[in-house]
Amino acid sequence: MGATQPTVTGSANRALIGATIGFFIGAGSVSLFGPTAHIFLKAMHLSPQQVGLLVAMPMLTGSLLRIPFGASVDRNGGRLPFLVLLIASVIGIAGLYWMLLTLYPNHLTEKYYPMLLTFGALAGCGIATFSVGIGQVSYWYSKKKQGWALAVFGGLGDSSPGFVVLILPAVIMTVGLWGGYLFSLAIIIVGIIIYYLMGLNAPYYQFYKRNHDTARATEEAKKYGQELFPTGGTWHTLLLSAKHWRTWPLVILYFTNFGGFLALTAWLPIFWQTYFHVGAFHSVVLTAVFSLIAAFIRVYGGKLSDEMGGEKTAVISLVVLLVGSVIMTFSSLLWLTIIGEILVGAGMGVNNAAVFKLVPHYVPDAVGGTAGWVGGLGCLGGFAIPPILGDIVALVGINGYALGFGIYILLSILCLLLVWLLYRTRENLTAHLSR
């Protein structure tokens, strides 16, 4: 009997490590242009609007692609779409390296701007691995451990932009602009190899690939502890999750906290230098502190979500975010604003973990589709919020740099109301699932 017992390759922890490393490598492209924007501005004589679009381009494609690729996990388990996205990112970064190697500095003119945007868009595909990894990891772990597992995946992966902000300028100063992108290319190739070796699909998908029998694959996977199972193909799970009204409060929560995190990662260097006249180096350090706090505390947020529940954790983190936003909006003291920044980063990081603890609870029959909507549309906050902050500055003047953080006060209050709404309807959801 032991000889015929179906076996599973890999383990939940191995898959988590592989997916986390893969996402960490892919997510770094969100900061691909931020630390180097001033170089392209000077070399290509770009307008502020062109620079803004260039910086946002990897974020835009990485956000939108999260939706279909996240949903595709329900069809194939995640491994294939994850690899496709990382390979697309390699092509984009390789293209940027080639452009800089052959054109910079004397021949890199404005006429190459569309090509620069195209390669930046491809490079941003790596960020979309987030929603794929969320689904892939969710299917490996039991519901009791998902909060911790997803927080490790998201938290450690999200730390990548902070490290890029610190490391890429140092590499460029040492070996030149093209060398910085060559370094990025080498890192992502190593990440692909590691993910290929470790990022295996959950038991259900391994069994289904062998016999193409859904019922049998489900039964065998249950013996290995798998609790969540897909209910259909890519478009089915997208439509199914879109019909769940509870998907959309989760999207807004993630728009505020993860999208807000990406927005501030891009905006804070400008804020510190312009409003408080902090030097370039110290503005980068302050931004990296915010980014890394938000990323690493997400791991603790996952543990807290498992122990306290996603709703309570979300409320606590949103209150912290609200307090930090109030401080940053009305403070004119550097040290107090730094405290506000730390509170905002901590609140966002913990809440990001809480949101994905809530995803499999509130939409258990379409986890991949929901992860796609939440991760994709939520990530768009990083693309949508900075222009609003810029408009406030244009309208109000220098004080608009601080008053712009009032956006996060409004979003925090809205999110608190949405968490309350989800909690109030929890019993109705339980009754529906039991039928």
TrEMBL record:
Keywords: Membrane, Nitrate assimilation, Transmembrane, Transmembrane helix. One of its GO terms (molecular function) is nitrate transmembrane transporter activity. Its main location: membrane. It is a multi-pass membrane protein. Residues 246-435 form the Major facilitator superfamily (MFS) profile domain. GO terms for cellular component: membrane. GO terms for biological process: nitrate assimilation. It holds the Pfam family MFS_1. It comes from the Bacteria. InterPro entries: MFS, MFS_dom, MFS_trans_sf, NO3_transporter. It is found in: Membrane. PROSITE patterns: MFS. The chain crosses the membrane at residues 12-33, 53-73, 80-100, 112-135, 147-172, 178-200, 251-272, 278-301, 313-336, 342-359, 371-389, 401-423. Belongs to the major facilitator superfamily. Nitrate/nitrite porter (TC 2.A.1.8) family. This is MFS transporter. It comes from Acidithiobacillus thiooxidans ATCC 19377.
